[in-house]
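Why predict the complex rather than its parts? Because the way molecules touch one another can change local conformation, and only a joint prediction can capture that. The input here totals 382 residues.
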Amino acid sequence: MSESKKTFVITRFDPDKDEVPKTQEYEIPVHEDWKVLDAINFIKDEVDPTISHRWSCRMAVCGSCGMMVNGEPKLTCKTRLSDYGDRVIVEPLANFPVIRDLVSELDGFMEKFQAVKPWVIRAKEEAGAVSASNPPKSSKGTFVQSAAELAEFKQFSLCINCMLCYAACPVVANEPEFLGPAAIALGHRYNLDSRDQGLDERNEVFRGEGTVFSCSFANECSEVCPKNVDPAAAVNQAKFGAVIDWATSLVLPRPGASKEGGK
Amino acid sequence: MRHFLLRIEPVIWLLFGQGLLIGTMLLTGWVLVVGIGVPLGLIDPAALSFDRAHALGSNIIGRLVLAALIVLPLWKGAHHLRHLSIDFRGAERDVVVAPILYGIATVASLLGVLAVARL
Ligand code: FES
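Output of the joint prediction:
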């Protein structure tokens, strides 16, 4: 197996000692089939055990290993080292507060996720008349969904919450309160779900400040998404949904607060 | 004002989206024909003689096209400039900037529609 050397410039930040993050360089031997994460793990295991970083699955599923690699948000377990030159700069994800070294603070992000009510909302849990908005339950008590209905939202359900899209989004950089790509895509995923009846509740959220219309369609989120969720498409479909919602509100009164919804 | 801006967002976005389409496609073609093709003699000026142009522009479809050509790009421009202002750290001043830009677009749209109606 061929080996070469690469220098890694890694952000270091100890909240107890440092005012601002600094960088530290490590020159290590690398294998050509390594991912960026393998190199960081090597440094932590063999060179400097004080480095903090997050990872778990090593197969682009858990979404915890997102970092900036040469200034671009990347899943480090999916990013081939051979695509980079002799100097690789690794930083914590942009647009998030840093806790330590390469680990960023996610609390605000989790709140945004909850804001879009990411669960199937049923107007009432009764099995009344069967209609398009009230699909039949199977004998096992689950909701029946056809393959075509699943295909409606499947793409938007593949998000692994890696937050690369937040690190890439110029609107998040400018306006940290912006609900952001992944959260809007998640809300939209439930709006498209044939079992869900929470469209009005989520449109209420999407009508608020710093949501769908703050997006200026830079499309960076979809560029960096490692799972091809295409959050930019979701956000812009949600915008169109808000237009329809506005148009219908002209002729039909909004359901308003009377909807308590089944949580 | 913030609340009002938030409420009209869907409408503005709709005008903006259509303006984008018209602005990039129809308006470009329009400029190519009227602004470049005819002055350079690539297109026979007789094709755009007053009588023909007037007949084209003053029937109902012609009027609708002209109105769309004037109005929609105005909203596209206003909305783009507003977002440009926000992107340059202008979230605070947006309550002032947005009404001015949309105000200009409204007035100009009305004037445009009036002009088309009087053709
Ligand atoms: S380690 Fe799980 S996604 Fe990279």
